[in-house]
Amino acid sequence: MEIEYIFSNWKIADFTVKMYNKNVGISVTRAANYKTTFNLVSADTLLRKKIIGLVLARNGTSDKDSWQTSILHILAEEPRIKNLLHKAYKRLPNDLKDNIIILCTVTTGQCDYIYENLLGEKRELLCKLVKSRIS
Length: 135
What we know:
By secondary structure, this protein is of the alpha/beta class. The chain has one domain: Trna Endonuclease, Chain: A, domain 1 (3-Layer(aba) Sandwich), CATH 3.40.1350. It is built from 4 helices and 4 strands, in the order ββαβαβαα. Helix 1 crosses helix 2.
């Protein structure tokens, strides 16, 4: 569901879904080895950035689109990255984890396209695929 924000220049979630008759804000991101090897610092940085972004997005929504619970869905390139994310998550302060569910999917097979910087139609197709898996 498209989200209406109070301000035009604001942190945003990717979409919301209805769960048990309540809105849930969803953000989807990728965790992969890009120019350097994904490590514990990378995991911590990614989690903090995305969680704080979800909190800001939640605080900037209109009343009709507001939500209290968020899901951060991370697509991980390999199990090692998932393990680093789990370790980094356990180290985060509890107040940062409040009302946020972390879902990590480790991709397998030929999934390089997920980790490319997608533009236009390819990006829209990927977003539709992720939405269909969560909804």
